[in-house]
Amino acid sequence: MSLTLMVEVFVTLFVIMDPVGTVPVFLSLTAGRTHDTIKRAAWQAVLVSFVVIVVFAVFGRGILDYLGITLPAMQASGGLLLLLVALELLTGDDDEQSLAQGKAKNVALVPLGTPLLAGPGAIVATMLFVHDIDGVGDGLAVALGIVLVHLALWLSMRFSLPLQRLLKESGIMLVTRIAGLLLAAIAVQMVADAVRAFIAAG
Questions:
Q1: In sequence order, which residues have a C-beta less than 8 Å from that of residue 99 and are 6 or more positions away?
Q2: pTM above the 0.70 mark?
Q3: Whole domain around residue 157: which residue ranges?
Q4: Torsion-angle region of residue 51: left (phi > 0), alpha (psi -120 to 50) or beta?
Q5: Spatial contact of 86 and 190, defined as CB atoms under 8 Å apart
Q6: Which tens digits make up the pLDDT trace of 80-108?
Q7: For the chain, how many helices (H) and strands (E)?
């Protein structure tokens, strides 16, 4: 097994999926939920992300080719979806009705699991690593790199709970607004990159 390739996969996906940067968004989207619900959301989001990454690693190129979807189109759609989430964080109401609706939604699946964690960037990077695999050793290195980065994601969200207790409700609200602003910037950047890719391809 290639240790260098494993480290390269881990570092690349770590930077793209950003476990540390995910924490404020995770805290914002799970605010008001019980301790057990937050813990469950952490592993569910990581599981969803892992499944999506693995599926696209194995079948991604075939799926996109069959559906006639280009990588820039996928990137743009992910950016638009994240932008909708960002707008909810920035302008969301704090009344009891909206809080109840928020508790009813499983944010671990969307937007946490995908497209925030398993977004276009992570999917494309994984597909490129898989495309360059040469032998069983390389395959094991890529697989281990993917597993390790998801372990880092789970740890970052699982142990964000002490931070939530420290910040309390008013602090979480501040983090929510900041996270919404950052998420909006990430979404716009994804769409801008997709537009540039469309223009370059044309």
A1: 32
A2: yes
A3: 3-201
A4: alpha
A5: no
A6: 877 887 787 788 654 434 434 445 567 88
A7: 8, 0
